[in-house]
Amino acid sequence: MPDPMPLPAGASRHDPLRDPWVPAMRRALAEAAAATGTGDVPVGAVLLGPGGSGGPVLAAGRNEREATGDPTAHAELLALRAAAARRGEWRLSGCTLVVTLEPCTMCAGAAVLSRVDRVVYGAVDPKAGAAGSLWDVLRDRRLNHRPEVIPGVLAADCARLLTDFFGPFRRT
């Protein structure tokens, strides 16, 4: 069904749920882009301190599995570890994890265990996503902590970065 209220060229709809997270997602996208320099999949994350979308950036991370040879060196885990070290506390209550790709089961589990208040992500990961795509670890009622989940922030930009990275591999 066509949009009953088309927007003028160059205009965009205001999205009160996602718009506040755009600056943090742009920072995560910059981290993701830097990962390609080491041959890593371009996923980036930032951990915001208390204050919601206006909270300070406590830490940032990008995938470093290829760079380090560490299978757990996902952007989310690196950001969570750095933020916990900076705060001197493993409980990251009040904090928000912003990541360019829907977290996998390992990273979703770490978000739950670290007690972040919310997880904001860009692109959906239908093959390994654990925030509603393949699994839903973040909202599993059997767990003792369930962060708020805000999907789809700059989703097209986040997906494009991954598509551009994987494009050459798919053409051969």
From TrEMBL:
Q: Which GO terms describe its biological process?
A: tRNA wobble adenosine to inosine editing
| UniProt keyword annotations, A-Z | Hydrolase, Metal-binding, tRNA processing, Zinc
Q: What residues form the catalytic site here?
A: E76 (proton donor)
Q: Which reaction does it catalyse?
A: adenosine(34) in tRNA + H2O + H(+) = inosine(34) in tRNA + NH4(+)
Xref: Pfam families: dCMP_cyt_deam_1
Per the UniProt entry, the Enzyme Commission number(s) are: 3.5.4.33
**Molecular function GO terms recorded:** tRNA-specific adenosine-34 deaminase activity; zinc ion binding
Q: Give, as one word, the top-level EC class.
A: hydrolase
Residues annotated to bind Zn(2+):
H74, C104, C107
Q: Which positions fall inside the CMP/dCMP-type deaminase domain?
A: 19-134
State its cofactor. Zn(2+)
Cofactor: how and how many bound: Binds 1 zinc ion per subunit.
Task: Please report which protein family the annotation says this sequence is part of.
Answer: Belongs to the cytidine and deoxycytidylate deaminase family.
The cross-references to PANTHER family, in alphabetical order and at most eight, read: CYTOSINE DEAMINASE FAMILY MEMBER (PTHR11079), TRNA-SPECIFIC ADENOSINE DEAMINASE (PTHR11079:SF202)
Q: How does it assemble?
A: Homodimer.
Protein's UniProt name: tRNA-specific adenosine deaminase
What organism, scientifically named, is this protein from?
A: Streptomyces aidingensis
